[in-house]
Amino acid sequence: MVRKLNINYTKFEDRHYWILQPKTGATDKVVFYVHGCAYVQNMISFQWFMVGAIISRTNATFIIPDYDLAPRWTYTKLFSFIKNLYLHVLEKNAPEKVYLLGDSAG
């Protein structure tokens, strides 16, 4: 699956996020995905598999924030980063083409 994707790790404010999109046939749909794992673990293999499966079926671009975990980051710091990145994504794309997806704590 990875060979079929363009994957970029990009900085926003003082944090990073991933941009995953198909190498060919990308649509103008953007999925802003906030992963779960109770704020104590980074994305797990199942979540990466799910993202790849959705991209292969929709040709959408995924934006995935890479946030620090508890207890280093508090909820307010996390929410501020997520909100600001989401607003940035809305500015760069047609808002009606941006979809919000989350699981568990996300």
TrEMBL record:
GO MF term set: hydrolase activity
InterPro entries: AB_hydrolase_3, AB_hydrolase_fold
The Alpha/beta hydrolase fold-3 domain, residue ranges: 31-106
Pfam families documented for this protein: Abhydrolase_3 (PF07859)
Protein name, UniProt field: Alpha/beta hydrolase fold-3 domain-containing protein
Annotated organism of origin: Trichomonas vaginalis (strain ATCC PRA-98 / G3)
